[in-house]
Design a protein that fits this description.
The chain is 48% helix and 12% strand. By secondary structure, it is an alpha/beta fold. β1, α1 (15-24) and β2 form a beta-alpha-beta unit. It is globular. The model has no long low-confidence stretch (mean pLDDT 95).
Length: 336
């Protein structure tokens, strides 16, 4: 095992952040897990369980929860797992205590609504001396926390440092694959959440598995068009952080985004769905900014456009479905 990475910080004690902390925690490695809510930190430290966001999973003793972001500043690597719309403020709060050259692994899957920036740009804005990395792929928090087999992409421009980090965090059941295309990994993680809402709507409306499969395939084409237009590598989208994550998120009600789509398809109101949840559904904020980004670049993304219109209350679910079904017949292709 590498000697470089021994202490880790995790920003965000939701289900995914807690699962990452659980994965990182092992003999000889300490994990400081930052929680916004004092009661969550207290439960982790005393009951060894995140009863609010990951109930039923006993947490390892190497995890030390804290409400002080500065407690993470001396870590050898930071995993940023706060929701995308809150990533900037948490990174900014870490600025005074973070050591220059520390890898910050971005694990949130979204685009900042206010600026249209991906998380790597947010990191550059707030912590320019950090070493950026992106970890993304088909990974449900409960599976990782329970030690079920999972594979993800970890993208970092410095391949040697990325390899060292992967050696430090890999386990027999958690396998990161090294990549260098950070933007491609980010695009896959952000866009798949919007497409999962579309897939949930289709199943909630009873449109059948054929329509569901078509949405995944055509959604993948949209994701790839965006990636190529923004300068990412097409190969990244064929991997775990693209196609792999898309298939998982669009195929299971465990996905918060797909389950939200299911509820919309069954006629529930968006406000009611969100009010009943204690966790963030990233695709809701991502859809409108993704639509703006696609329009500004002249990228055709009709499924994502339809989801954004439904989220913004511009059209009904039935009108969105009709608009997609009435699109002109054309050749099947992926072009930017």
């Amino acid at each position: 095992m590498t000697q470089h990475f021994k202490t880790f910080g995790v920003i965000g004690a939701g289900a995914w952040g807690t699962a990452i902390a659980q994965m990182l925690a092992r003999e000889g490695q300490t994990v400081h897990l930052w929680a916004l809510e004092p009661e969550v930190a207290a439960a982790i430290n005393t009951a060894r369980e995140n009863t609010a966001f990951l109930k039923g999973v006993p947490l390892k003793p190497e995890i030390r929860a804290t409400n002080r972001l500065e407690d993470l500043g001396a870590a050898d690597a930071i995993f940023a797992v706060a929701p995308a719309q809150h990533t900037r403020v948490t990174l900014r709060a870490l600025r005074a205590s973070l050591r220059p050259g520390t890898p910050v692994v971005l694990c949130s899957k979204g685009i900042e609504l206010a600026t249209g920036e991906f998380m790597t740009q947010v990191l550059k804005d707030e912590l320019p001396e950090a070493v950026p990395a992106v970890m993304s792929g088909p990974s449900f928090a409960i599976d990782v926390a329970r030690g079920l087999p999972t594979a993800v992409t970890l993208a970092m421009e410095d391949a040697a440092l990325g390899t060292e980090l992967i050696q430090a965090i890999s386990t027999p059941t958690f396998r990161p694959y090294l990549g260098t295309d950070l933007l491609g990994a980010e695009i896959g993680g952000a866009v798949k959440n919007v497409l999962a809402i579309a897939c949930g709507i289709a199943l909630g409306k009873g449109l059948g598995r054929s329509a569901h499969a078509a949405l995944i395939a055509r959604g993948y084409a949209e994701m790839t068009r965006l990636a190529l237009a923004l300068g990412a590598e097409a190969e990244t989208l064929t991997g775990l952080s693209g196609l792999g994550d898309l298939v998982l998120t669009c195929s299971s009600e465990t996905s918060r985004n797909m389950s939200l789509g299911l509820a919309l398809g069954k006629g529930e109101a968006l406000g009611d769905i969100l009010a009943a949840r204690n966790a963030v559904t990233e695709g809701v904020a991502t859809a409108p900014v993704l639509r703006r980004l696609a329009r500004a670049r002249g990228i055709e993304m009709p499924i994502s456009e339809a989801v954004a219109a439904v989220i913004e209350g511009e059209i009904s679910v039935d009108e969105a479905i009709t608009a997609l079904l009435m699109r002109p017949v054309k050749a099947e292709a992926v072009k930017s």
